[in-house]
Here is the input.
Amino acid sequence: MAVAVFSATLAGCTSYTGSPAHQVQEWAAGAGVVVNDAQLASDVTLLRKSVAARAPSAMTTNCAGLSYDSGTAYDNLPTPDSAITNELNIAYTDFLDAGNACAAASSVTSARVRAALVEIASGLDHLERAGALLKRDGVS
Here is the structure.
């Protein structure tokens, strides 16, 4: 238990050097944010295709993948920039919650899936805002 607390403490104390943009670039390189966010976008595309195809097995698999990949991305927060952290936090949480909800759905037409798709759209909006802020800081 002490190890987990110690690790969590260290993660919040990571320091970056240079200008604010350089700090974000250092974080992004270490966190793999570009790759993680591209994976999330791919997960969303696959999920939407499985819903449109009315393929429940593929949908639940894609929902579970979205949840898993959201957790992987979330583990790299916080960033050195609070605005980027906020946008990514909301996006990743939306994806995680939506993925969990639709993975448990019994039908591609269920209310759970409809609600998850709305939450995913919100997550994509926040991911886009975060992407613009990352791009502003030289991360692409």
Observations:
- Residues 1-12 have pLDDT under 50 and may be disordered.
- The CA atoms of residues 105 and 112 lie 6 Å apart.
